[in-house]
Automatic annotation (TrEMBL):
Keyword Nucleotide-binding in annotation: yes
Domain of life per record: Eukaryota
The name this protein goes by in its record: Protein kinase domain-containing protein
PANTHER family: TYROSINE-PROTEIN KINASE (PTHR24418)
PROSITE patterns in the record: PROTEIN_KINASE_ATP (PS00107), PROTEIN_KINASE_DOM (PS50011), PROTEIN_KINASE_TYR (PS00109)
Record keywords: ATP-binding, Kinase, Nucleotide-binding, Transferase, Tyrosine-protein kinase
InterPro entries from the UniProt entry: Kinase-like_dom_sf, Non-receptor_tyrosine_kinases, Prot_kinase_dom, Protein_kinase_ATP_BS, Ser-Thr/Tyr_kinase_cat_dom, Tyr_kinase_AS, Tyr_kinase_cat_dom
Binding site residues for ATP: K121
Domain named Protein kinase: residues: 93-349
Coiled-coil stretches: none
Length: 380
């Protein structure tokens, strides 16, 4: 088997091309080695291996994920399976209840080995390819930070394939804000923005672009700690830029102009989305540009329209939001600078928030409620 590094034009994709020859024919596949020690790579030429939606069942009954094959009729395959440290025995999971659903799967609350609550994302058959699953799992295995929802493991030895995450008891940030509208203090809101900023600063420093940052894709856990989730669109880059293919769907009202004009993503486009998330928090879960269609939003944003100042925010804090929405990237702050501003300039950003009222009884008793209905996409 031969391996080569990606070309300069493909540099941002950070992938390797593998080629092998058999009987005068060449087979090629592309593999993203984001964390190769987490996966075992195999090449199979056995034409008798049965291929299904759940992968390939190999010798000894072991199930493998199909990374790529040259054509549907070609039985020469590159296969993957997670290393032992990531593979979770499905018999160790006891499902409790469904807590969310989405286009690509269902999320269920489960008990892992009878001691720990976890959130289990189950892939809907035919809705997510094995290659997409591998790419998402690679990202999740690579990153680890207190303000990112942590992948605990995967279970590939059954159908459907599942991802196992830490359980965040209060569900998505967007739903949390709406359920508790009128009860959150400015300090609490600022703390939530700081949590997200810390997670995003880690991604930026690690050369990852999230591409889908929004309140719906963050989760709220114990003590109202907020963690970034939904890494289905996240990409590793070497030059702080990723250009998506034509026709790729994206969240218009959270996206920077360079995204809907050219499909161009960077850490600065993540900063734009972060500014919208901060606006969501301080508007207590309102939808940005809710009275505009996506097409109208694109036109108005291109013409200079920006979100209005939320009532909870001071003028100076609103200026901070607007700094995230600068169309010229060189003027837009980095995520690290956003974190520094939020951590060191609390009195400057929230000058009239020194005397906070305690959380209302409804918020104080949240911990006693049933597990929140969770948007499945937040665990994507």
């Amino acid at each position: 088997m031969l391996g080569r590094k990606n070309s300069k034009q493909e540099k941002s994709k950070a992938k390797l091309s593998f080629c092998w020859r058999k009987q005068n024919s060449e087979h090629c596949a592309v593999y993203n080695p984001a964390h190769t020690t987490d996966w075992q790579l195999f090449v199979y030429t056995d034409r008798k291996l049965p291929i299904s939606a759940g992968g390939v069942v190999g010798p000894g009954g072991t199930r493998y994920l199909v990374l790529l094959r040259k054509s549907p009729a070609d039985k020469t395959l590159i296969l993957l399976k997670p290393s032992r440290k990531w593979e979770i025995d499905p018999t160790h999971l006891t499902f409790v209840q469904e807590i969310g659903s989405g286009q690509f799967g269902v999320v269920k609350l489960a008990s892992w080995q009878g001691t720990r609550k976890v959130a289990v994302k189950m892939i809907r058959e035919g809705m997510m390819s094995e290659e997409d699953f591998v790419e998402e799992a690679q990202v999740l295995m690579k990153i680890s930070h207190p303000k990112l929802v942590q992948l605990l493991g995967v279970s590939t030895q059954q159908v459907p394939i599942v991802l196992v995450f830490e359980f965040m008891e209060h569900g998505s940030l967007n739903d949390f804000l709406r359920r508790n509208r009128g009860t959150l203090t400015r300090s609490t809101a600022l703390g939530m923005c700081q949590d997200v900023c810390e997670g995003m600063e880690y991604l930026e420093a690690s050369n990852f672009i999230h591409r889908d940052l929004a309140a719906r894709n963050c989760l709220v856990g114990e003590s109202f700690v907020v963690k970034v989730s939904d890494f289905g669109m996240t990409r590793f880059v070497l030059d702080d830029q990723y250009t998506s293919s034509s026709g790729t769907k994206f969240p218009v009202k959270w996206s920077a102009p360079e995204v809907f004009r050219y499909g161009r993503y960077s850490s600065k486009s993540d900063v734009w989305s972060y500014g919208v998330l901060v606006w969501e928090v301080f508007s207590e879960g309102k939808t940005p540009f809710e009275h505009l269609s996506n097409a109208d939003a694109v036109e108005e944003i291109s013409n200079g329209l920006r979100l209005f100042k939320p009532k909870m925010a001071s003028e100076k804090f609103y200026q901070f939001m607007n700094s995230c929405w600068q169309e010229i990237s060189v003027v837009k702050p980095q995520m690290l600078l956003c974190c520094c501003l939020l951590h060191t300039a609390k009195d400057y950003l929230l000058p009239y928030a020194s005397k906070e009222q305690p959380l209302l009884e409804a918020e104080q008793n949240i911990a006693g409620k049933k597990p929140a209905e969770t948007d499945c996409a937040a665990y994507d």
